[in-house]
Write a sequence for this structure.
């Protein structure tokens, strides 16, 4: 039954890892915005219609 | 017909473009830009995602962002190549907004990265400043309908490091709690003799795991209890800390002497649940600001005129004697004198006066007024920080510190009695066992202290108030913190402001009374009125809604009186009673209240236009609801032209007109001295002092993201009719708390029953504590939600 000592030490170490991951996640601000990441992941990364950078619109804006 | 861009009803005009309809030229332009840049995804993510643009904005409105000094107030990072800014953009409201703002680089290749923070309504934009200037970034956002709120975009001194300590503490407590529970299970189910070695190991492991709970996660309760003792004041944290101490040290003793398993599971559970309650109570509205002062209402910069050149200048660097130019809709930054141009100043936000005032050259203009109409030139006679308006902020109320421990809150009132009762029971238990069996004193006395720990009591308040804050938020009242609910429940008097609070600031209703106008007369009156920039003339133009623009001879405008002119050889007059009596023989019978413009043609009296303020829908219902249990007062900065009307409709005795911001403040102060607790409903800067002074200050706002004076809560004006519901809800919350106190007392009684008889085992403690907490939390959550459902129906 001595194995239980080892198992408990391992399980607490695992839990410590998770605690560390949680603190890291909080520190890097991952819980600050709970809405936009959920939406962001559904959006397409690559423009679906564009092959080249349009120039007409750019002009419009910079004027 | 709905606008393809913003989804508004197309009322006045419909602009068709590529088989789509738009309500205004602004919306169409945004569509064109996005379409040309192949950003149509914006419209496919959500239906009509845009923000109504109206007319196209002035080109030069962000020119001041080229000023180096002003620029530095915004840029978070700037190394000559790359700059970073965090813009506050209140218009962000849906996934399309996020998508578009994060694809800004497709509109301009100067944008390197833009990331939206949705709850804060902010966009962090990194841009290449060799391609784009800060001004151009702001203009880019403006062209697609996301004008940044610049006063909220400034970087703050403290750099706003969000306080995450509580989250860390919860994380650590959760970790320790979970592991200690795991280690306690063998004890719950009973271990036989063979496992005594494990027993010791589990005990020591729990002890080690409880150290962070006691010294880190739960340290605030112990600190607060010591503070309370120092101030000779019994707060809720004293019995909690007492329980924690007893749990901790008795458990250490038991483990070290191998006399028992200890109560580390109860200790860690207690701290974990208490912290969760604290976290739940901290519902904050990141996107709203409750602490704004006049500075965020003012412009960032103004155009100073130096030798006929306009230089955008920081407000802080303005001096007495500087001449500045103000355009339509711009604010007067400090008390000044009108030098040039036609000034119509709208003081409604500052003084509560409902109509713009015409000013003559050389007249004194007060800070905070808004110019309506053409450009004017003014000369400052006071520094920005010293104007008539800003004096209000030098008052004592604004220096007050909010963070004084509240002696009178409901928890602390109860805990005072609670703690005394607990100490009494503990003492009696001690005496009883001293007489019967002195070896049991230690066990039973500590057991009483452990089980009496008021965790259910301490959870009832944060969960009730936390949930109520969310409920009210869903209904349109956004609270600064949970304390407001408690204060609101104790209100005896309600003070209302008039302009903008009980009246709708945007819509003025114009009606025409008199002889029916022919089509030609309408055309002619429209032509006449369109020649004047007076707000009443503009309102008449809107009302008549013609396109005609006839040639006018001998146009004459007399300030404050009226206008006249010859159209097709007929003399038309629009103006006040006095002005019209001067030139016609017909006299109107009576003069109604409010703003009236009489009209006549060729000595023939036609009738009058009547401009009335519109009261908010549901006002009568609110007054009725409030009158049942509160006294209602009205203090207005406006004149008393509506007095009779208000008296009739609301039957209020406490009507006060022509009140200055200072008068309002002292009026509330006087009532408080007479022992009243006051709720103030206001909207403008003129109410800022009164809102701050009152026990609960609520700002009514048509757009909750726009400027509102500092207050305890922001009420969405669309939900104004629910005002009496909110007060009723806050009273109900107090009742819920009282009932849940009773429930938690019952649990305590059961626990004390075990404790005084010396039979409190760790298992019973570990079961009783969470069960009582969870049932109280479930009870409060259930009833607050039930109340919400009832009110919404």
């Amino acid at each position: 039954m001595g194995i239980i000592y080892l198992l408990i030490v391992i399980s607490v170490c695992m839990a410590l890892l998770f605690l560390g991951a949680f603190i890291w996640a909080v520190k890097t601000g991952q819980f600050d915005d709970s809405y936009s990441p959920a939406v962001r992941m559904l959006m397409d990364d690559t423009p679906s219609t564009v092959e080249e950078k349009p120039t007409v619109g750019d002009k419009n804006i910079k004027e | 017909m709905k606008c393809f861009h913003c989804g508004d009803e197309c009322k006045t005009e419909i602009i068709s473009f590529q088989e789509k309809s738009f309500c205004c030229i602004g919306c169409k332009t945004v569509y064109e830009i996005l379409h040309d840049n192949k950003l149509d995804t914006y419209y496919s993510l959500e239906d009509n995602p845009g923000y109504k643009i109206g007319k196209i904005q002035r080109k030069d409105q962000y020119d001041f962002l080229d000023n180096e000094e002003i620029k530095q107030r915004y840029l978070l990072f700037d190394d000559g190549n790359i700059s970073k800014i965090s813009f506050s953009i209140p218009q962000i409201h849906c996934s399309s907004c996020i998508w578009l703002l994060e694809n800004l680089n497709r509109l301009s290749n100067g944008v390197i990265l833009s990331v939206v923070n949705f709850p804060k309504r902010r966009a962090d934009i990194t841009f290449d400043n060799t391609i784009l200037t800060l001004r151009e970034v702001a203009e880019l956002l403006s062209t697609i309908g996301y004008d940044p709120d610049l006063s909220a975009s400034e970087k703050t001194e403290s750099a706003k490091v969000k306080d995450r300590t509580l989250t860390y503490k919860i994380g650590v407590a959760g970790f320790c709690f979970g592991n200690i529970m795991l280690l306690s299970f063998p004890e719950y189910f009973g271990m036989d003799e063979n496992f005594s070695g494990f027993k010791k190991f589990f005990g020591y492991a729990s002890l080690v795991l409880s150290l962070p709970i006691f010294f880190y996660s739960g340290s605030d309760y112990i600190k607060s209890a010591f503070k309370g003792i120092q101030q000779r004041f019994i707060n809720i944290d004293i019995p909690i800390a007492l329980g924690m101490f007893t749990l901790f040290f008795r458990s250490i003793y038991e483990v070290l002497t191998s006399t028992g398993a200890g109560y580390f599971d109860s200790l860690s559970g207690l701290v974990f649940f208490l912290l969760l309650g604290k976290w739940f109570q901290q519902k904050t509205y990141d996107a709203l600001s409750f602490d704004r002062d006049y500075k965020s209402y003012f412009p960032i910069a103004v155009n100073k005129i130096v030798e006929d050149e306009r230089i955008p200048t920081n407000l802080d660097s303005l001096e007495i004697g500087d001449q500045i130019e103000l355009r339509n809709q711009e604010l007067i930054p400090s008390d000044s004198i009108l030098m040039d141009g036609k000034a119509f100043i709208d003081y409604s936000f500052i003084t509560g006066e409902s109509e713009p005032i015409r000013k003559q050259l050389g007249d004194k203009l007060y800070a905070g007024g808004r110019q309506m109409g053409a450009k004017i030139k003014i000369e400052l006679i006071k520094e920005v920080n010293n104007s008539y308006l800003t004096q209000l902020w030098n008052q004592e109320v604004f220096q007050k510190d909010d963070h004084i421990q509240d002696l009178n809150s409901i928890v602390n009132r109860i805990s005072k009695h609670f703690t005394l009762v607990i100490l009494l029971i503990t003492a009696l238990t001690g005496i009883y066992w001293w007489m019967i069996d002195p070896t049991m004193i230690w066990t039973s006395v500590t057991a009483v202290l452990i089980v009496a720990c008021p965790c259910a009591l301490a959870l009832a308040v944060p969960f009730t108030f936390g949930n109520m804050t969310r409920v009210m938020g869903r209904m349109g009242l956004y609270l600064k913190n949970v304390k407001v609910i408690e204060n609101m429940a104790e209100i005896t008097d309600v003070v209302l402001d008039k302009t903008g609070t009980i009246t709708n600031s945007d819509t003025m209703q114009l009606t025409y009374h008199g002889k029916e106008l022919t089509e030609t007369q309408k055309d002619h009156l429209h032509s006449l009125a369109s020649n004047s920039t007076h707000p009443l003339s503009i309102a008449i133009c809107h009302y008549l809604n013609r396109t005609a623009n006839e040639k006018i001879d001998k146009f004459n405008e007399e300030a404050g009186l009226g206008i006249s002119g010859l159209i097709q050889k007929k003399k038309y007059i629009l103006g006040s009673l006095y002005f019209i009596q001067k030139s016609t023989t017909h006299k109107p019978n009576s003069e109604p209240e409010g703003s009236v413009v009489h009209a006549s043609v060729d000595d023939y009296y036609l009738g009058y236009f009547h401009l009335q303020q519109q009261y908010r829908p549901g006002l009568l219902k609110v007054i009725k609801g409030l009158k049942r249990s509160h006294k209602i007062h009205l203090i207005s900065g406006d004149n008393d032209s509506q007095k009779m009307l208000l008296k009739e409709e609301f039957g209020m005795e406490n009507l006060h007109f022509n009140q200055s911001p200072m008068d309002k403040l002292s009026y509330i102060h006087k009532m408080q001295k007479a022992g009243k607790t006051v709720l103030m409903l206001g909207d403008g800067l003129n109410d800022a002092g009164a809102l701050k002074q009152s026990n609960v200050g609520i700002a009514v706002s048509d757009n909750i993201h726009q400027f509102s004076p500092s207050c305890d809560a922001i009420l969405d004006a669309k939900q104004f009719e629910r005002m009496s519901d909110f007060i009723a809800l806050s009273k109900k919350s107090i009742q819920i708390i009282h009932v849940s106190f009773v429930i938690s007392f019952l649990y305590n009684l059961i626990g004390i029953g075990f404790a005084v008889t010396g039979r409190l085992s760790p298992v019973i403690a570990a079961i009783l504590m969470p069960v009582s907490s969870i049932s109280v939390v479930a009870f409060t959550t259930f009833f607050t939600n039930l109340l919400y459902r009832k009110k919404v129906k």
